[in-house]
Request: fold
Amino acid sequence: MSKLLLSAFVGGILVSAAGWLLWPVPREQERTAAELMDVVMWGREPIGGPFTLIDHNGQRRTDAGFRGKLLLIYFGFTFCSDSCPTDLQAIAGAVDKLGPLGEAVQPLFITVNPELDTPEQLKSYVALFHPRMIGLTGDRKQIRDVTRAYKVYFAKTTPAIRADPSFDHGALVYLVDIDGQYIGFFPPGTPAHRMVEVLRPKLAALTQP
Ligand code: NI
Reply:
């Protein structure tokens, strides 16, 4: 092996090693999936609260701007090939099945991968599911804050140097009331018709004088 080749080879190893040392990177996610599930399951800590994010049109959005709507909030990332598409389809299906009542529901998709999920990326992604679904991103701190508030587990499952990282992430569908108070969650994989059964009486009560 020539010197040049050898140094390229060693250099390659060093770059890979650096990548593996940096992985898993998201230090902001200090709690394990089990801890967070425990918190959410038993309501041990407050869930939800204020957030400031950027929507898929590049507009700044806060939780306060969604008052008056029942929020269905889902966290994930657009390159996800398993839970995200399934659960987002269920959410969109529920909104449609609710008919006119569904207009009081606002589906939100919040990315855990703000580096790749830019407003433009989110815009084409949420449009695949529902015309009224809003995609939300932000800077790392904004995403860290909102995922902490909702006790969302997420962790990179691929080396940090990969251009298209994959994430393991919590897949609960959070339900937030018209006054911004957290109500509860649908478990991962809840089908649209089951969401409708839960949401319809709630929405019907809202529209009663
Ligand atoms: Ni996903």
